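Person: Please work through this fold.
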Amino acid sequence: INRCVKMICCCCVFVLTVALVLVEGSAINTVASFDFHVENEREFFGWVENAEEPITAANFRLKLEEWLRSFQRPQSTLDDTKSNDNDLKWNDIAFDFIPLYIGSVMEGQSFNWTSPCFGSARMSASALSDEGATLTYNFQEPKGCKEEVYLIATIEGLHFLVIEGSTTKSFVWKNNNMTDNQRQWIKNNGFYVLQFNGTVSFLLDSIAASAELFLPADITKEVWEKVGERNAQFLREKAYYKLSERTTTDVPLNESQIHDGDFFGVLRLDGLDPMLAWAMGAHTGHTTIALRFDGELYICESTASSSYWPTNGIQKTPYKQWLEMAKEASYNVVYLPLRSEFRNLFNASAAREWFTTKAEGLNYGYHNMLFGWVDLPEANYPSTLRSQTHEILIGIAERISDWIAPLLWTEALNKRINTTGLPIAAIVNKAKEKGLSFTDLFSIVEKDSWQYTGGYSMVCDVLVCETWKAGGIFGNLKDKIQCTEFTNWDAYSLNIFDTTTPRPQECVDADPTLPFCQILGKYRVDLPSYNTRALFANMAEKCPRGTPPSWDKPTGC
């Protein structure tokens, strides 16, 4: 249980899906209602940091993999064979552990709600004194369910409740270690009440099912067959992908068939790519672009060094070498060529100059990674994730690590209120003084001109978009499109690709129904909304996640 709990917390901190975990195994032995406060979050989540080896954009992914590696099962225990039906159904509950924010208890007030198991639920909070605040919860009118699980959270602490039957109880939320900003945050926001889906047993199953998507695929060079099938089924169930299996998995194109500015989309079924694609409403988890240097074709990309990729940051790799590396990493790769009018617009020399002088060698764009995804917070989050849970997650990240929160959140949030170095509680308090909520703050449009520690911050699709911009594809819209607001979907849905030139026969033979070539991979990758959106000013700045099964976005987003 503890291994699953800690592993999934790490995954959540990295990609951002949600608040954290349940209970440690020793606490589950009780058969009555109980609650407990997390006193030491670094210890609870098993996170260890070395002050002499700070976490940076250059080593963040490797640090997470090092942490995950302790949870890897031997390949023999995974039985690298076909998944059975029960194993595939296991993926139906992946990420169902994410708690739902249901309300807030303000100082000196109470909050009432009804739930699946209780006709009457109530929590009250006294005023926050020097000693702390007394919180009292009362659950009555049981409906015959076994139990309910709650997380009471602030920007500085976590308290879990497991409720079995009618009960009334109080506990003290201590004030002794709070900063002034944390106290003010509680005065402004109260104590968040988040409800988990189902019983402790169900939550542990969900955490384990989520873990099975990542392990060992995110810490091995290749994706083992059974893990790939689990991820494919997860995407079919949760994101409505088709992902049919291909009989021809290798359709390499000759370099002469590929032009500068052409797009390559990637899906690696390793837990991470599927989680990102599911969260974004996209059908790829990584994007790259083709450029020639001194007559040789290269694939340019922004990525992080990992168990399956040796080089960190923004880089270029000779095409043939990249193909071999992609094959070894179990990539599923689609190729989208530019349409002739945009190929003619694309100034490859200008794009190469920009890439060489402005981009190459920069670290992966962790600083604004989440801000390109989240435009309309409550319309972008998957499943039961909400802004309040996201806000709490940032506070958790600050308390377990000295470096993760600035890397993923707080440097970018500070920029939005013209401050530097403030922790999350101070940022949210300062924003409130300006009339901005956390949701408002996160919705502020990211600007391509903004720089962070280490320079410009670009994730994979941002690099592709910026390369197109530098090459002139956007024309007079160049200064009116913020590439840092793009997601994978925003890139491949642009109406700039060639769908009229007949595909090479080898592509047609391998994938008769696709409108583009898929050059690598066991699973067929379709791209709903591919090549459908015209370029316009301020695009991609206010886009929701979309509506399943095709994840269509509204016109004008």
